[in-house]
Amino acid sequence: MDALSTLFSSLLADKSPSSFLVLTSVPSEVCSSNIGLLSFNPVLELSSSHKRDASIKPDGTIQLAEPSYFSAGHAYYNKPVHLWDNITGRLSVTDFSTHFSFIIQHVYKEVSADGIAFFIAPINYEFSDNHNSSGAFLGLFTNEFALDVTQNQIVAVEFDTFKNTEFRDHPSDNHVGIIVNSIVSNTSITWPSSIKNGSTVYAWVSYNSKTQNPSVFLNDANNLVFGENSSVSVIVNLTTILPEWVSVGFSTSRGNFTETNIICSWSFNSTLEGDGNREKKLGLGIGLAVSLGVVSYALGLLWFICWRKKAKGNAEDFDVDDYIDDEFEKGTGPRRFIYHELLHAINNFAEGRKLGEGGFGGVYKGFLSESNTKITVKRVSKESKQGKKECMSEVKIISRLRRRNLVQLIGWCHEQYELLLVYEHMPNGSLDSHLFGKRTTLTWPIRYKIAQGLAFALLYLHKKWEQCVVNRDIKSSNIILDSNFNAKLGDFGLARLVEHELGLQTTVLAGTMGYLAPECVITGKASKESNCYSFGVPNKVSLIEWVWDVYGKGQLLEAVDKGLSMEFDAGQIKRLMEVGLWCCHPDPTIRPSIRQIIQVLKFEAPLPNLPSKLPVPMYFGPPIHQCKFTNTSSSLMCNCSTNPSLSTGPSIPLSHISNANVELASVID
């Protein structure tokens, strides 16, 4: 106890830039480290699944999840931790150390599972709180990607209480290991005594940036001397695995067996300074000679007159700029870049670095030499007020989302009258460049994986986040492919947040013509159903009619891209095209939910029974002269003076209003 008290006292006195200490006051018979009292709230964020909350117990400890089957819970520090730095002119990596104590108590003596993990992960890392991440996955991975190191960004220390032979686990049930980007341990050791007998376990985790060596030391209440077999370490370069800013915390999950997991105390210390200590504000001072006073007065008066003339027009710009900075500062993920750093990264907006021109500005490829990182920079046009507003929407939404199938917003810069957004670089570009450009033809397995990846992204946006996110501009140019051809949905400038039980209440139409669901053109309202419809393809105006026609004739394989050279799975391709037609049904009430789409694509649900010909419902819409249309380079907007309704009687055929098509079909042809 004296040694432990001395350690905690030294940690509490530590004045390093990134440190915090979380202690709990607990009964001595439960946790012997009763050293002080500092409430976990609001230092920690708690999350859980199935409404079984990770919670702070009356004795001050944290119970990560209820001891019930198929549950998961997480507790993590509620502020980002600076792991490494690429702005100081050289790569600086933090040294850190953390100490925590915990209890694992079996509920049934026969068997219990599955332990806990201490993790370091990106701020936007997606922790799945469902059956797909329960049990052996410790709440850190889904069963789909648990073994795929290209799909995960995480380093963790596992304190495992159940041997999973399918993951080449340690021979002993009770073991401790270090895992990097997959559930398979890079190295592990046997814990010499049972770690699930209810005694307090102490763990020290440290990282030396010079040796790139994370180390774990372990003790229980009966053995306060480090033993030869109670430590484990491995060489890991964190800068190649994790971003600059990360989250740290604890995770657990249960499967067919259960146990109680309690965190008693926790401290964390790192050496790297944050932005606040790194960035210095420059003060401006100008001294004028008395002899120039009259000239200065005249120039000042002239400036004042010009300013008064422009004040009214500029007021909105000032409001927008202030709001942009406020929204950026609220984001926990993206960080502020220095303007000259980005200017150097993209070679002063050189044409050779330009990847394309978006609706509201250019997109450039960049390179951060300090961190050896490729980036993509979106430059918002100075003249585009609409572009600034869309950037506000994008930052507000995408900085809070956590999903591997969404393009990651790394940072931003709002200096020199420029607004720049910085994204992770996707080396394989956009989907449309492969389908309609001169790039290599995508094989069928890659196309099917892209369709499924996009579906998983929409499932997260529609169902799994705290609010429903309606993208409103899903098209092949906004589907970006990483180095492994994993699909990532980007461009959230037109996205909107809605409550799950409510629809999007707007009469302003926004999106790209050719991708809009028919009812959107009439009502101006986007929805989850119209998002499913927007799995669409440009450049072939009559694509839906043509595919539906060959479907009705029983000749669906005639619609397959000839570039595939008949190298495809016929069952998959028929399923994908029929799902595409189902998504494009003119009646939004008949279209599938995104969950149904995934089940069909995974052969877990039957195909729909579609009519042999494309239905043509009729809408009572306002006369065209009552609609005011506004075009931008990326979207069409409409304000209608009346509210149309769906009808079985004759009115305006949808085919005369919108040639909207299906993105799933674009993957095929």
Can you walk through the features of this model?
Helices cover 23% and strands 26% of the residues. The protein is built from 13 helices and 33 strands. By secondary structure, the chain is of the alpha+beta class. The protein folds into three domains: 2-273, Jelly Rolls (Sandwich), CATH 2.60.120.200; 323-424, Phosphorylase Kinase, domain 1; 431-668, Transferase(Phosphotransferase) domain 1 (Transferase(Phosphotransferase), domain 1). The termini are far apart. GO terms for molecular function: ATP binding; carbohydrate binding; protein serine/threonine kinase activity.
Keywords:
669 residues; alpha+beta; Jelly Rolls; Phosphorylase Kinase, domain 1; Transferase(Phosphotransferase), domain 1; 3 domains; eight-stranded antiparallel β-sheet; 33 strands; disordered N terminus; disordered C terminus
Question: How would you describe the shape?
Answer: globular
* Structural class category: alpha+beta
**How much of the residues is beta strand, in percent?**
25-35%
Low-confidence stretches: 1-42, 48-52, 224-228, 274-292, 311-320, 493-541, 619-669
CATH class of the largest domain, please? Mainly Beta
Alpha carbon gyration radius: 28 Å
How many domains?
A: 3
CATH topology of the largest domain: Jelly Rolls
Pfam family, one: PK_Tyr_Ser-Thr
GO biological process, one term: defense response to oomycetes
Subcellular location: Cell membrane
Family: Belongs to the leguminous lectin family. In the C-terminal section; belongs to the protein kinase superfamily. Ser/Thr protein kinase family.
